[in-house]
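Protocol step 4 of 6: record predicted structures for both targets in the notebook before any analysis. Target 1:
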Amino acid sequence: MNAFFLDGSSGRSFCLLHEPSPEAEAKGAVVYLHPFAEEMNKSRRMIGLQASALAQAGWFVLQADLHGCGDSDGDFSDATWERWISDARNTATWLRDRSGFSPSLWGLRAGCLLAAAVAPQLEWVPDMLFWQPVTSGKQHLRQFLRLKLASGILGVSKRSDDGTQKMREQLASGAAIEIGGYLLSSALALGMDVATLEPPPVGCGRLLWFEICGATTLELSPAALLGVRAWEAAGWHVTAEAIAGTSFWQTQEIEELPGLIEATTALLGNAA
């Protein structure tokens, strides 16, 4: 595993490159696109374990912090949706040149929205790997804004205008809003607000779709089924699977899902 900074149009991105084990035949390359805000930090353990497993199986895996996130340049308040698309495009192109493979895009939660947005801007049609994908940026943003309301309930803020509609109006006017320690810019919020998990308009590839479920309901949710059907209707070859486990991207304690790692490594290898 190598750590380095990759230059881009909006500054340097901090990257971790996992290279294939010398004992394994190189099979392909994957760029990981992380989730939004605190979900990124909560999921680092699982992402590191999966990246290591894929490298041992013969894959190049590139983890990159988006602008204003982690150890990359900029503050979170500087981030925009278009800037993140540019970062993702830059890292994917770099990994193709470095590895000799056209990378797949691996997204977790909102990272799946970003994968769908950047795919049409690449010179190849990337295969996709989705972990618990967010299907609507508008809904995801609404859930994030509600954290502000929750803080009001707990007595941190009691302003009567702390409703999601009022916050949307503030963002639309160009103002930034602080939520859970993150200063959300208008540009980032408005970009995410219109993002949807739709198949790219050019070309078709393979899509692996994983959803984490409770052990008693080991089946895809209605929203996931609708998403899978939409991608299949667009011509994509979709493999969807429900995995028993906890929502590791939001749990208080750091969680591991060995079953998800094993299933991902096996199915991605079969799709190579």
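Target 2:
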Amino acid sequence: MQMKGLKKQTAPLKFLIGLACSECFTYEGLIEKQIHENLGLNLQDIKKIQIKGKLQITTHSGIKTISLAEAKKHTRRNCLPCKDFSSELADISAASLGLDGWTFMIIRTKQGEELFSRAEKAEVLATRKADEEANAIDLLRKLSNKKRHPK
């Protein structure tokens, strides 16, 4: 919306927190067809869904997986032209990037820095330095480049 100049819609926003995203999937395709029908999972049993090199569905009885190639068959068409993996226009961007129990945060603006600092000082979140996460930084670069320049 920012890139399209929709100021009426974006002006009321005080700050933006964006998520890293390769693409989104259709509910009907991924959830109803692939997970419910093909895997036979009861949707009420799902505790979480993550992408970690493959799509992992954690249920009360274990973990089931779907290959990313299979999941990508259910990509929403409106995601295809997007080249922004890491929410570059956000004040703060958030990504999993293979971290267990942590979220990789990218502070992009002065407003994002102020918001993050206030949350940190209020002890609302725990932090550690990004330079401890070389693999996550490499993955961020790789996935951003892949989204920007798909094959």
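Step 5 preliminary note on target 2. The radius of gyration is 17 Å. The first strand starts at residue 17 and ends at 19.
Proceed to step 6 after PI sign-off.
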